[in-house]
Design brief:
Blueprint (H helix, E strand, L loop, with lengths): L1 H13 L10 H4 L5 H18 L5 E5 L7 H17 L4 H16 L1 H17 L8 E4 L5 H11 L4 E6 L16 E4 L2 H10 L1 E6 L4 H15 L8 E4 L1 H7 L2 H6 L12 E3 L2 H12 L6
Parallel strand pairs: 1-2, 1-5, 2-3, 3-4, 5-6, 6-7
Helix pairs in contact: 3-8, 4-5, 6-7, 6-12
Length: about 280
């Protein structure tokens, strides 16, 4: 009888219902607990940034596919080799065109890196944590920006997210400021919560989504006015017909003043400094 009672007690203690709610991962993952998970994703990054004395940030967006020039050259060489074996293959021809385009745009990786060097070297001095660079934490342009802060011994933030395919953070983020999100909405909120400027480098769906959400929030007064810098006028005017939006009557002419263009890291930083009346130090 005593043995039976011991077994019963063991069964009770090993039951998931007896586990502390905060330690029961299966329970926390239930659909009914979504509001709790949202609150946790709201609180954790904010509390940790406060602990590190981070008061303001500058957000850098851009494509995961635009990397350093050496990687782009390797990709082009591989594409050209594949094409040489199948010169009539339309897919191989397209691969070469894309690889050449990405090699040309690799200068944006260097520009994002230089921009972050300028900002971080100017604003993270004497223990201050202002205008800390924040990215989506992935490769490409995001890596370039985190790397620039790393180059000058400054902190930077990465807001990574779980995706169906594996996504690892780039190695240049300050480790204790690299956050992982499940919900895109919470991640976007943290991009803008402390943002004093946004710099959008060439990118795809993700960059466009983040850019237009920011413009919408500023346009509607849900977010304060901050500088929104589009890096590389040629790219942005090629993929978005801004004037057509005005001519079609779906935005006002004044809405085109919600953003500016820049062609160099120095120009982007000068525009931000001009907005806030700061001295541009490089």
């Amino acid at each position: 009888m005593e043995r039976d009672l011991t077994q019963l007690l063991d069964a009770i203690c090993s039951s998931s219902s007896y586990r502390l709610a905060e330690e029961d991962l299966a329970f926390l993952a239930r659909p009914e607990l979504r509001p709790v998970r949202l609150q946790l994703e709201a609180l954790k990054p904010e509390m940790i940034q406060q602990e590190h004395g981070i008061h303001s940030t500058i957000v850098v967006f851009g494509s995961t596919r635009i990397g350093p020039a050496d990687a782009a050259r390797r990709r082009l060489a591989q594409a050209e080799e594949a094409l040489s074996r199948e010169p009539e293959n339309l897919d191989r021809q397209r691969d070469v065109r894309v690889a050449r385009s990405l090699l040309e745009k690799s200068r944006n990786y260097d520009a994002a890196r230089r921009f972050a060097q300028i900002v971080s070297g100017s604003c993270q001095v004497q223990g201050r944590r202002e205008f800390v660079v924040v990215t989506g934490g992935g490769p490409g342009i995001m890596e370039g920006a985190n790397r620039g802060a790393f180059d000058v011994g400054a902190k930077s933030i990465g807001l990574n997210i779980t995706l169906p395919h594996e996504q690892r953070p780039n190695p240049y983020i300050t480790p204790e400021l690299c956050f992982l999100f499940h919900y895109f909405a919470m991640r976007k909120m943290h991009f803008l919560l402390k943002a004093k400027a946004l710099v959008a480098f060439p990118g795809g769906f993700g960059t466009l989504d983040e850019l237009f959400e920011t413009l919408t929030l500023i346009q509607t007064g849900k977010s304060p006015r901050v500088p929104v810098i589009l890096f590389g006028r040629g790219y942005w005017e090629r993929i978005i017909n801004w004037t057509a939006l005005v001519e079609e009557g779906v935005i006002d002419p004044g809405d085109l003043g919600l953003f500016e263009f820049a062609e160099s890291p120095e120009e982007a930083w000068e525009r931000i400094c001009a907005f806030y009346g700061l001295e541009s130090r490089r």
